[in-house]
Amino acid sequence: MESDLDRRTRRRRGPSSRRRRQRRSLSTTERLLAFVVRSTHDSVACMSPEGRILHCNPAGERLYGYPPEEYVGKPYSMFVRPQDVSRLEDMRRRLLEGETLPAFEHDVRRKDGALVRMLATAAAIRDDDGEIVGISVVHHDISAELEFRRALLEAQLETSLDGILIVDPTGARILSRNLRFAAMWEIPANLLASGADEPVLSWVVSKVRDPEAFLSRVRHLYAHPDESSFEELALRDGRTFERYSSPVLGARGANHGRIWYFRDVTQRKRSEQALAEKSRALARSNAELSMYADAASHDLLAPLNKMVAFTGLLSKRAAKKLDAQEKDLLERLNKTALRACTLVRDMLTLAKVGREALPAAAVDWRRVRADVLSDLEVVIAEAGASISFEDLPPLAAPELLLRRVLVNLISNAVKFRDKKRPLRVEVKGRRAGPSVEISVKDNGIGFDPRHAERIFAPFVRLHSGAEYDGSGLGLAICQRIAARLHGSITAASVPGMGSTFTLSLPAGNHVE
């Protein structure tokens, strides 16, 4: 058992042992920290509260080029430029007042006089009582990084297709410019050699077609350093430049100058002008062709209508006097004239689809349905067809164009019906994302799916005119209307089972 003496001895020795362990632990931590400070590539320096150098690690000694005996006890100002002392003194005072400072950049002067750009972090050193006993400063050499950035920027500057000029905030001095800038404006080398902006500006002003307006905008930008500006410049030699200018802003909004970009868009402008002239010429030609087509079509319709009327009248009056062969010839002549009338009218319709000015408004489907059924009343009755309209969603579009599409598609279904069974035509609609789809489905004879795109071409017929009447323009008109409404029309079919035509239009449509 433990005696009273042993317990008293253990109590006396316990706290002392803990203190020894704490000292050993602290000593180990200090040695580790000292090792880290000695081995790091960054400069670590300690200063007194008054700003005198107390200690610097080996990296700092190598960086600054001073041995310890030349810097210990000396003011830190020996390492910086005179113009930076005031700013750094203000930062030292703020640290002593307990403020935490963000990292900052400044130049450090080496013993050989060279300046090295540093990223610095400074912090106050406190004792166990919280009193500030010194200041630590860590310097990271960023001169190589800055040199890389500078080389990269210079490469970008010189490989740019734009002419670039950078001037100071007042516009008095040229800070940088690329070769492209001098070449675009054909500036003599002696004007650029001085680095002054005024002679260069005078040269540029002499080149533009409206020098007073250009100079006024330049002065306005220098009077308003935060503004950006874009304009198109016409030069006296016929070229055209785009000019963009903006301030060069640094940290915390500091204005370091102004950058000017110049881009030669002469070829593009000439191409645009040539295209515009071709468009105007094409519009004039189309207007003339449209006028001639209208006149020719009306002139063609007049004799064709007379031919239809005369052959019909002749058939009635001479029916008893003609033999079977003569009646057949007269009937063929009448049908040919009717087909020619239909062809001319459909060609007029196809030509007018792209010319009519029609407003887009909310479609009244009940009115459209009534108009379509009224237009096709006779042919629907003759075919014994059943036409249904279901689930037609809201749509903004010209009703007249939708009516033409539906009349053509239902007429197509009536024409190509299977006479062995009653014709059923279903007109349905649905919303499909941003579009509205209107489908016309029939149970007619159908067609080979390989011709699903070909049937929309003008005058394309999958069957002979002797089998089925028509001009071959009905589906072409539907496709022209779909294109004008910024939509599309497609066809699908199973031979012998029927066809489905689907018109897809943007829900909020408009017409050009």
List keywords for this structure.
5 domains, single chain, Beta-Lactamase, 17 strands
**What is the CA–CA distance across the termini?**
109 Å
CATH class of the largest domain: Alpha Beta
CATH architecture of the largest domain: 2-Layer Sandwich
Mean pLDDT: 81
Number of domains: 5
Which geometry do the CA atoms define? elongated
- Number of helical elements: 15
Strand proportion: 15-25%
- Strand order of the biggest β-sheet: 2-1-5-4-3
CATH homology superfamily name of the largest domain = Histidine kinase-like ATPase, C-terminal domain
Secondary structure tally: strands: 17
> Unreliable runs, pLDDT <50, ≥5 residues?
none
**Structural category:** alpha+beta
Q: Rounded to an integer, what's the Rg over CA atoms? A: 45 Å
CATH topology group of the largest domain: Heat Shock Protein 90
**What profile does the largest beta sheet have?**
5 strands, antiparallel
Helix content bin: 40-55%
Structure description:
By secondary structure, this protein is of the alpha+beta class. It has five domains: 1-28; 40-141, PAS domain (Beta-Lactamase, 2-Layer Sandwich); 154-264, Beta-Lactamase (2-Layer Sandwich), CATH 3.30.450; 274-354, Orthogonal Bundle (Helix Hairpins); 356-506, Heat Shock Protein 90, CATH 3.30.565. Helices cover 47% and strands 22% of the residues. It has a five-stranded antiparallel sheet with strand order 2-1-5-4-3. Helix 10 (266-317) runs antiparallel to helix 11 and helix 11 packs parallel to helix 15 (474-484). The radius of gyration is 45 Å and the shape is elongated.
